[in-house]
Amino acid sequence: MDVVVAGHVCLDLVCSVAGERLSLEPGALAEVRDTRLATGGAVANTGLALLRLGVRTRLVGTVGDDALGHALRDALARGGAGDTRGIATVAGASTSYTLVLTPPGGERMFLHEPGTYAAFDADAVDFDLVDGARLFHFGYPPLMPRLYADGGRPLASLLRTVRERGVTVSVDMAMPDPASPSGRVDWRGVLERSLPHTDLFMPSFDETVVLLRDTEHEGEAAETPAATRGGRSAHAARVSRLAGELLAMGARMVLFKMGSDGVYLRTAAAGALRAMGPAAPREPDAWADRELWSPSMRTRVVNTVGAGDATCAGFIAALLRGLSPEEAVTVAAAVGAYCVEAPDASGGGPSWEACRARLDAGWPRNPLPMRAAGWRRDEGAALWRGPHNRSG
User: Fold this and answer.
1) Residue 240: which CATH number?
2) CA 31 to chain CA mean position, Å
3) Which end of the chain is more exposed for a tag (fewer CB within 10 A), N or C?
4) pLDDT score of 346 more than 50
């Protein structure tokens, strides 16, 4: 296998609220419509997207021995998962699932049951299935209390073990629930322990703000147009600063999923990139000390569930194929855009050939005005180069 995608996998029950608003008051009844059952979580969303992109991928996760577990296995098979030996069944446990509610004109709401992931730890990963892979992608540590316990030492140990077995490590995150134990974790401390063993760190920008508790900078002036989730202004100076902090903690590449603003990438020095292992860039010098921002693709948004996971898959596939950083960040944005055109994450994601053909045909980008100092527009690549970009 080229890639092992491990961590969180679940069933998503996706529906739209039929009324003008959603009320969760006691005794209230809310009608929903367009209900779909789909695979969810990083293992399914990123893993299946990688398979569609032609990347040999194995899925590693846990399900319960219940009806939902059987349904999830069937859905993974229908999605093209093929070999599911890495999906272990936990006797007596329930399968994780998420209710995804979309109010009219409003932000999605998620009601999540952790299921087997309340007890997920490093013992749930069969390292024999990891050996020989080029890259190990791990998704959603904030949904796994045993991994973020003790200041995140179990998570750091898991990632260190994978790197010591000669496999490149990639990590994606999830938004901590402020009302749950994960919302009270010192995530900065967890990342300080984990990122030295992480080659590619790919959270959303909103998640990063929460994980690093960057609230003291909420008042900074906006320099790009977009409000991402929660209405926070995502602006270039803040994005650069937080990416720099994550690189300083030990990550070798940082990719922020910026929602409707596209995809941001910042990389470390060439020496650090050469130490990434078998999934290191084909030309480390060309990838070193880069800061790039690809605007999002112009598309018809049907549903945004799983778009961030698909973005991760696009970037990984481009990296493994030896593309340049400009091409990789563009492909990441394109695969994420394909995902939002589908009603759920199970049906999103193109083949590699379809994605490249649409890009080669001149897939239009959404506007991304940039007024921050040091940023310049590269018209040929249709992206922005930041003040920390060494080349070009």
Assistant:
1) 3.40.1190.20
2) 31
3) C
4) yes
Distance CA 331, CA 284 (A): 19
For 21-40, how does the pLDDT look when each residue is reduced to its tens digit (9 = 90+)?
777 778 878 888 888 888 99
Task: Count Cα atoms within 13 angstroms, Cβ side, for 150.
Answer: 8
Q: Is the dihedral of CA 205, 211, 212, 218 positive or negative?
A: positive
- The reply to whether 392 falls in a domain is no
- Long-range CB contact pairs, 383-387, < 8 A, 24+: 383/292, 383/293, 383/294, 383/295, 383/326, 383/329, 383/330, 384/292, 384/293, 384/294, 384/295, 385/291, 385/292, 386/236, 386/240, 386/266, 386/291, 386/292, 386/293, 387/240, 387/291
For Cα atoms 184, 11, 344, give the angle at the middle one, nearest 5 degrees.
105
* Alpha helices for the chain (secondary structure H): 41-52, 67-78, 127-130, 145-148, 153-164, 187-194, 205-211, 236-249, 270-274, 284-287, 307-320, 325-340, 352-360
39 neighbors 48 (Cβ within 8 angstroms):
yes
Average pLDDT over residues 308-316: 96
Asked whether 267 and 325 are in contact (CB, 8 A), the reply is yes
φ, ψ for residue 87, nearest 5 deg: -90, 100
- What range defines the domain where residue 352 resides? 3-21+31-385
- Dihedrals φ, ψ of 61, to 5°? -170, -170
Asked if residue 381 is part of any domain, the answer here is yes
Average pLDDT, the chain: 89
- Confirm whether 58 is domain-assigned: yes
Q: Which two tokens stand for residue 102?
A: 């979309």
Give percent of the chain with pLDDT exceeding 90: 71
- Domain-located, residue 103: yes
The amino acid occupying position 103 is P
Beta strands 57-64 and 87-90 are: parallel
Our count of domains for the chain comes to 1
Question: Is residue 53 within 8 Å of residue 350, measured between CB atoms?
Answer: yes
pLDDT in tens, 350-372: 999 999 999 999 999 999 988 88
Please give the Cα distance from 191 to 156 (Å, whole number): 8
Diameter of the chain by CA atoms?
A: 61
Q: Which residues contact 362 (CB under 8 A, 6 or more apart)?
A: none
